[in-house]
Design brief:
By secondary structure, this protein is α+β, with helices and mostly antiparallel strands. Among the domains are: 188 residues, no CATH class; 73 residues, no CATH class; 102 residues, no CATH class. Helices cover 15% and strands 25% of the residues. It contains eight helices and 32 strands. The strands form 16 sheets. A two-stranded antiparallel sheet has the order 1-2. A two-stranded antiparallel ribbon has the order 3-4. Strands 5-6 form a two-stranded antiparallel sheet. A hairpin with a 7-residue loop joins β13 and β14. The longest helix is centred in the C-terminal third of the chain and has 21 residues. It is extended.
Length: 546
């Protein structure tokens, strides 16, 4: 997706076009691992769909030279994209998640779809909130998608229909099936919402049925497509209006003939038919050896001249012409050798400023403290909830019933952090300050290899002597895993036993820990900053992450 520059500190938004469908599909298949992403994407999807009624005409950003995007020269503008000022305007999207207009935050932002209302708006501080049919307290509650109610994280979960359950705490989705069996034998079939598992289908019997309008292709029974193209063909999509609406038509085009044509207003770049590569479609084709591709408006800028211009109010930082790097645009440019880049929030936005490392760097967020600082060596350290002595302690986490971790320190001399239930401490060497690791079973890496009882389905690990051939051979879908295990068995002879390897790794970890942690201050948006952004404006947070 093209990226849109703006004057807001350190933010580059991507235009949500068709990718939201594949994103939601991926999250649907992994919602037990990606709960937060799903919740936030749900919020953003509702907000993105808010503007079936366009707001006022778009206000385009100016560059340092005062230039504006030219509709005659800019096919992106012709296709209808808009460039809004994120500090004063909200970008409005149509039902296909295409940006169509800008609406003033002071006037309430974009209109919400019928049946929805604004949640968490704070117009005095520039926070427009988002559109939703259910406004939950995200710090303490989550939304149940089926019953449309908010429930406490530490409560009894979502109310589900008879025969259904909330498979994963906090997921907000009820299902009669939580998971299928071995993925090499069974395919997991999903309901049209992409979240709920509808059934499990044997791959040998053809796998899951294809969605409406699609058919089975090739020898893989899990592959569905609207059209089945050969390896010497490109799979092409027909769009009714450029890229603005999802395609419902598909066809095949020979690679030798150049592959798929580009939508109106775009041109084909980078094609090399001698190797079967048909290139890609873009507004402009830049020479990446000598030019930088700019997005607002689409154009090519010589790297020798500094690359793309920055939005008004920003400056270029970190340029390295010797390595062909033009740097990045930011509100302030701090000297990384003597200063730390800090952020404070004003309403829903972040402001940048520089703080001298000699003075201790940026102030830590409330509830955290400065760890690992060594100002004599220009190391500012990092902010953390607790500071453990890396030479004698291990940082541990106690997880409550809601999955919230509480950090604490444990002495290496006492064995370090407690292992999770069902595991044990392996490879510990207190004399060398090595705490080891937690594992289901401790095998002697010099003479044994860890195997798993795949056949029984309970996946119980056990140790087998290398001299006896290691793990027993398997057939079918498990043969590749056995091949990997066979390669692992040969590692001790080449690199030493597991204990030897772990000793080296822990020794290196000890030596590198301070350096690694000290470099955290170069990360522009750390977890706490991102959390603050999410709490204040999930819509902006999701656009930034996607």
């Amino acid at each position: 997706m093209d990226k849109i520059r703006n004057t807001h500190a350190m933010r580059r938004y991507e235009k949500p076009e068709r990718c939201i469908y594949s994103t939601c599909h991926t999250i649907g298949r992994n919602y037990h691992k990606m709960l937060l992403a799903y919740v936030l994407l749900s919020v953003w999807a509702a907000a993105a769909a808010a503007s079936k009624q366009p707001g006022r005409s778009s206000s385009k950003l100016t560059f340092e030279d005062g230039s504006l995007p030219d509709a005659k020269k800019d096919p992106e503008v012709i296709r209808g994209s808009v460039y809004c000022d994120p500090k004063t305007e909200e970008t409005c999207y149509d039902e296909w998640y295409k940006a169509v207009s800008c609406s003033l935050i002071s006037e309430g932002g974009c209109p919400c779809p019928e049946g929805q209302f604004r949640c968490n708006a704070d117009l005095a501080n520039g926070c427009v909130g988002w559109c939703t049919d259910l406004c939950c307290d995200w710090a303490n509650e989550y939304a149940c998608t089926d019953s449309k109610v908010c429930v406490k994280y530490d409560g009894d979960g979502c109310p589900c229909s008879e025969g259904q359950m909330e498979c994963y705490p906090g997921a907000g989705v009820c299902s009669s099936i939580c998971s299928c069996g071995d993925s090499s034998i069974e395919e997991t079939c999903y309901a049209p919402d992409g979240m709920t598992i509808s059934s499990c289908a044997k791959i040998a019997d053809g796998g899951c049925p294809c969605p409406d309008g699609q058919k089975k292709c090739g020898e893989d029974p899990t592959w569905c497509a609207m059209e089945c193209c050969n390896s010497n063909e490109d799979t092409c999509y027909e769009y009714d209006d450029g890229y603005s609406k999802p395609s419902t038509k598909q066809y095949c085009k020979a690679i030798a003939d150049g592959g798929c044509p580009c939508p109106k207003g775009l041109k084909k770049c980078g094609a090399d038919l001698t190797i079967g590569f048909t290139g890609w479609c873009a507004d402009v084709c830049c020479d990446y050896n000598t030019q930088e591709q700019c997005t607002d408006p689409p154009s090519c800028a010589p790297i020798s001249s500094g690359g793309c211009p920055c939005p008004k109010g920003q400056e270029k930082c970190g340029a390295d012409p010797a390595n062909n790097y033009t740097g990045y645009c930011t509100d302030v440019c701090c000297d990384q050798s003597t200063e730390e880049t800090c952020y404070n929030s004003t309403g829903c936005f972040f402001n940048e400023y520089c703080a001298a490392i000699a003075d201790g760097g940026c102030p830590c967020p409330e509830g955290t403290e400065r760890c690992g600082a060594d100002l004599d060596n220009n190391i500012v350290g990092w902010c953390d909830y607790i500071c453990c002595d890396a030479s004698t302690q291990e940082t541990c986490y106690a997880w409550d019933d809601n999955g919230i971790p509480t950090p604490f320190c444990a002495a290496v001399a006492d064995g370090g952090c407690p292992c999770p239930d069902g595991t044990m401490r392996c490879g510990a060497d207190p004399d060398n300050n090595i705490v080891g690791w937690c594992d289901w079973i401790c095998c002697d890496a010099t003479t044994e290899v860890m195997c798993v009882d795949w056949a029984s389905g309970n996946y119980v690990p056990y140790c087998m002597p290398i001299a006896d051939g290691g793990c027993p051979a398997r057939s079918g879908a498990d043969s590749y895993l056995h091949h990997l295990e066979a390669k692992l068995e040969k590692l001790p002879a080449k690199y030493g036993g597991k204990n030897d390897i772990m000793k080296d790794l822990f020794r290196e970890k000890f030596e590198l820990k301070q350096k690694i942690e000290a470099l955290r201050h170069t990360i522009k948006f750390n977890d706490m900053t991102a959390q603050l952004s999410m709490d204040k404006n999930p819509e902006l947070y999701i656009k930034e992450k996607n």
